[in-house]
Amino acid sequence: DGGITQSPKYLFRKEGQNVTLSCEQNLNHDAMYWYRQDPGQGLRLIYYSQIVNDFQKGDIAEGYSVSREKKESFPLTVTSAQKNPTAFYLCASNGLSGDITDTQYFGPGTRLTVL
Amino acid sequence: GNSVTQMEGPVTLSEEAFLTINCTYTATGYPSLFWYVQYPGEGLQLLLKATKADDKGSNKGFEATYRKETTSFHLEKGSVQVSDSAVYFCALRLGTSGSRLTFGEGTQLTVNP
User: Fold this and answer.
1) How confident is the model at residue A101 (pLDDT cuts 50, 70, 90)?
2) What's the pLDDT at A40?
3) What one-character-per-residue DSSP string does B59-70 give?
4) What pLDDT is attached to residue B72?
5) Which residues of A12-23 are buried (b: 16+ CB within 10 A; e: fewer)?
6) Any residues with CB less than 8 A from the CB of B19 and at least 6 apart, and which?
7) Nearest chain A alpha carbon to B44
8) Cβ–Cβ below 8 Å for B97 and A31
9) Left if phi > 0, otherwise alpha if psi is -120 to 50, otherwise beta: which for A50?
10) Do residues B16 and B79 touch, judged by C-beta distance below 8 A?
């Protein structure tokens, strides 16, 4: 089955700790994205990557870091500098065919709670 | 800048009622438009899309028509079911497949039996 895997589904961390959220896709997509979702708000883009070893900041990159060492993987690290990290994090991917009908596919999400 | 505005929720309907969720957009060009659905505790799933003016996207009884003159992409369904209870997101994308999506705030729909 092709798709996007995020692990773990629930994650707890103590204040002041860094934590890494996993995102893996087997759709052979070039582009990958990280979004943050807070209650009553839409999705806000954290980082995105269109090619291995390259990524760009989204709208709310402060306190987050990413890497893209492999096409299928795009891990997100929530650092201790992120002031309000408790949220639902969604990973997505997209082909880069240049076709405007291509769509973005989402993983099941990771709910991060800072204790 | 580019933005998407959805009608405020939550929306509560009885089963078999007619559903409309309004979505309007502001964009510097001609965007592609999308509706995504999120069931509790899950990621987003694409519900339908339209890539040019007057296109109608449809799926699972839901429909939305791309109206350039009113910059709108309202979601409709003639008869909702309890299983349609979810959060619905309207989104736009300028450019081709690698471009980023801009989302609305989401609208919570609850359908009661």
Assistant:
1) low
2) 76
3) ETTEEEE-BTTT
4) 97
5) ebeeeeebebbb
6) B11, B13, B75, B76, B77, B80, B84, B109
7) A106
8) yes
9) alpha
10) yes
Cα angle B39, B41, A30 (rounded to 5 degrees) comes to 85
| Main-chain dihedrals φ then ψ at residue A77, nearest 5 degrees | -105, 125
Per-residue pLDDT for A47 more than 80?
A: yes
**Adjacent-strand bridge partners of B14:** B112
- Tell me which residue in B41, B46, B106 faces A103 most closely, judged by beta carbons: B46
What mean pLDDT is reported for chain B?
93
| Cα–Cα distance measured from residue A43 to residue B88, given in angstroms and rounded to the nearest whole number | 12
pLDDT one-digit tens code per residue, B24-58: 999 988 899 999 999 988 899 999 999 999 999 99
